[in-house]
Prior knowledge:
Elements: E1 2-6, E2 9-10, H1 15-29, E3 33-38, E4 40-41, E5 49-53, H2 61-76, E6 82-86, E7 95-97, H3 103-110, H4 119-132, E8 139-142, H5 145-154, E9 162-164, H6 180-189, E10 197-202, H7 211-219, H8 223-226, E11 229-234, H9 240-248, E12 255-258, H10 264-270, E13 273-276, H11 285-292, E14 297-300, H12 306-312, E15 315-318, H13 324-337, H14 343-353, H15 359-373
Parallel strand pairs: 1-3, 1-6, 2-4, 3-5, 6-7, 7-8, 8-9, 10-11, 10-13, 11-12, 13-14, 14-15
Amino acid sequence: xxxxxxxxxxxxxxxxxxxxxxxxxxxxxxxxxxxxxxxxxxxxxxxxxxxxxxxxxxxxxxxxxxxxxxxxxxxxxxxxxxxxxxxxxxxxxxxxxxxxxxxxxxxxxxxxxxxxxxxxxxxxxxxxxxxxxxxxxxxxxxxxxxxxxxxxxxxxxxxxxxxxxxxxxxxxxxxxxxxxxxxxxxxxxxxxxxxxxxxxxxxxxxxxxxxxxxxxxxxxxxxxxxxxxxxxxxxxxxxxxxxxxxxxxxxxxxxxxxxxxxxxxxxxxxxxxxxxxxxxxxxxxxxxxxxxxxxxxxxxxxxxxxxxxxxxxxxxxxxxxxxxxxxxxxxxxxxxxxxxxxxxxxxxxxxxxxxxxxxxxxxxxxxxxxxxxx
Length: 374
């Protein structure tokens, strides 16, 4: 079977990008021919994956994406009987993998009222409508009930084209128990004392992940907690704004920022708590990765996978609409009770009994089904 995968940009440390690569590799392993159309690619190219660099540029993202769409549309005319699978919302798609939340909902809840009059809004709204609108036949693979509710609210009638997938956590993130030796080694390497608490946040895109909320919560801690709490941030993004806020809050000495990296399990082993107060996120794999590694989690209900934290009883979920005071209170409470609560044990148990690993296989099954039907 011939498959054409469309993604604007690939780099190794984004959730959307990792999902894309897992699904592409699963399709390749099943014997399908996979072409990938991308503007930018960072990292290794898997064997048997045919990468086609789309040679377009633009002064703005809107211009760039329009030129990408036009170039790919023309290229696909020469690709007979190929199912088109997109990982960004755009026209042309037979199947869309919904790594991102509903754009219209995000625009209405997180932007000022005049944003909807901008050319940027009109572009992304039209590209989302090409996938979920009444005139679309695109089948969408979604990651959470939260996404279903959002898309059905803003695009009535799309419900029968939405297909929920299980999570796709890599099996190498699953552990039987917390590794005390690895914890001690990590904390020695990064100079975290035995009497200090290590707060961890992982994710590319610091603004949408709510790093500002995390820093404000850390700054709000009682002095006896704040003075012995360090904060490590790992992800691919510009850090100037984070550094500036940390300095204003008097946290510069407690903050360490690392670019995206491959040894995240070591950070899970060394940390005491994962904080992830994202503004909006379709899934949030890091919540599950931390949970099944036995690391307690503090997150927000606007993350699609936050319900797993509640089901696992592996941490706390701040309610929606978000209140900074609730995050502050939960952080202080969790840091005080780490030695007494069963969040870590509960998370380890959840990783042993829940279906958290089969997303690539389930996605490939649906891609095959829809490609044959088309």
